[in-house]
């Protein structure tokens, strides 16, 4: 604390830091109310096969509609929910909401492929998480084969052997696994080979500046080649332009997700989108 460190340290507090501290404590205390007052909702962004635009799945992306502050993006509250531990409850709610939605879509014959849910390292480190996922599937009646989980590279590399165990337990029951934000962490290639994963998601920071940044293009190409060599699907996220899509097709990337195809959509908007497009 600045106060404890001494009289002169006050000058290190900038207006911006005060603002950040305020934001942080606002979010932290408001998160719990938000859960109780149902201020969260889940959007779904289509993921398509690059060759024929057929449905691979949808990524569940949480949104926070605050009554006074409006729509708050996940980057502003997920890290805080992780630090405070509230991600356990929030994550459980997101998973359940996605599974219930999936059951409804199955009943209505909406073709959504799989639903991919983001899970944070905090959730994955919980001893009871695997059991909670199994319970959720059982209670909602959503089939495990229709669920995918997106895990981050940083979770895997923190304790690779533990990650192999946790991920294997999901794989065994038929849940698909993808490594999110791939390329931003430090995955060791030897672990990558041992992990029971199905898919690599190239981080959007490597897609954004295609075709202007040759380094990003080289990285994207290398990830695609590595996925191919390891027999993994590779999905590019954040695809916004046809030039990027053409590049990815040329390098034999298998799947795409991005504003070029569809934004994250509410459940109703997704089923409309899916019914109206002519590619199935
Ligand atoms: P992510 O899992 O890597 O999700 C992809 C992000 O890219 C999403 O941002 C999505 O809306 C955005 N995106 C998709 N296509 C495009 C595009 O063409 N251009 C651009 N500029 N962006 C695109 P979003 O929804 O704001 O989520 C940000 C991050 O927050 C996610 O990154 C994920 O790390 C976290 N997050 C979101 N929902 C959840 C959740 O339910 N649980 C957890 N644990 N984390 C979540
Ligand atoms: Mg994701
Ligand atoms: Mg990602
Ligand atoms: Mg990301």
Structure commentary:
This protein is of the alpha/beta class and 280 residues long. Helix content is 47%, strand content 20%. The protein has helices at 2-5, 15-36, 78-84, 87-108, 121-125, 129-140, 153-158, 160-172, 189-194, 214-229, 242-250, 267-276, and strands at 40-49, 55-66, 70-72, 114-118, 147-152, 176-182, 199-202, 233-237, 255-257. An eight-stranded mixed β-barrel has the order 1-2-4-5-6-7-8-9. α4 (87-108) packs parallel to α6. The structure holds ligand C2E and magnesium ion (3 copies). Residues 24-278 form the EAL domain.
Structural class: alpha/beta
Widest sheet, order of strands: 1-2-4-5-6-7-8-9
Query: Share of helix among residues?
Result: 40-55%
Q: Give the overall silhouette.
A: globular
The end-to-end distance, rounded to whole angstroms, is 58 Å
- Contiguous low-pLDDT stretches (5 residues minimum) are 1-9
Number of helices: 12
User: What is the strand tally?
Assistant: 9
Key structural traits:
47% helix; cyclic-guanylate-specific phosphodiesterase; globular; alpha/beta; disordered N terminus; eight-stranded mixed β-barrel; 12 helices; 280 residues; binds ligand C2E; binds magnesium ion
Summarize the structure.
With 280 residues, the protein is α/β, with parallel strands linked by helices. Helix 4 packs parallel to helix 6. The structure holds ligand C2E and magnesium ion (MG) (3 copies).
């Amino acid at each position: 604390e600045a106060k404890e460190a001494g009289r002169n340290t006050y000058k290190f507090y900038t207006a911006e830091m005060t603002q950040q501290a305020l934001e942080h404590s606002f979010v932290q205390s408001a998160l719990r109310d938000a859960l109780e007052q149902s201020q969260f909702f889940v959007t779904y962004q289509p993921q398509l096969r690059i060759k024929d635009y057929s449905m691979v799945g949808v990524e569940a992306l949480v949104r926070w509609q605050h009554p006074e502050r409006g729509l708050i993006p996940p980057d502003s509250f997920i890290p805080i929910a992780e630090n405070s531990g509230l991600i356990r409850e929030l994550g459980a709610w997101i998973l359940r909401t996605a599974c219930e939605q999936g059951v409804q879509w199955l009943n209505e014959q909406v073709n959504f492929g799989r639903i991919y849910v983001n899970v944070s390292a905090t959730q994955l480190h919980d001893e009871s998480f695997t059991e909670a996922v199994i319970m959720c599937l059982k209670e909602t009646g959503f089939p495990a084969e229709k669920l995918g989980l997106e895990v981050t590279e940083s979770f895997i590399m923190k304790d690779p052997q533990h990650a192999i165990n946790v991920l294997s337990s999901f794989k065994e029951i038929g849940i698909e696994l993808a490594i999110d934000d791939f390329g931003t962490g430090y995955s060791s290639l030897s672990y990558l080979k041992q992990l029971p994963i199905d898919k690599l998601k190239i981080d959007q920071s490597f897609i954004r500046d295609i075709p202007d940044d040759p380094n990003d293009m080289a990285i994207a190409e290398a990830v695609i080649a590595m996925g191919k060599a390891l027999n993994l699907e590779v999905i590019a996220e954040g695809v916004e332009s046809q030039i990027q899509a053409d590049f990815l097709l040329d390098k034999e990337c298998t799947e795409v997700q991005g504003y070029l195809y569809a934004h994250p959509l509410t459940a109703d908007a997704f089923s409309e989108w899916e019914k109206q497009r002519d590619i199935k």
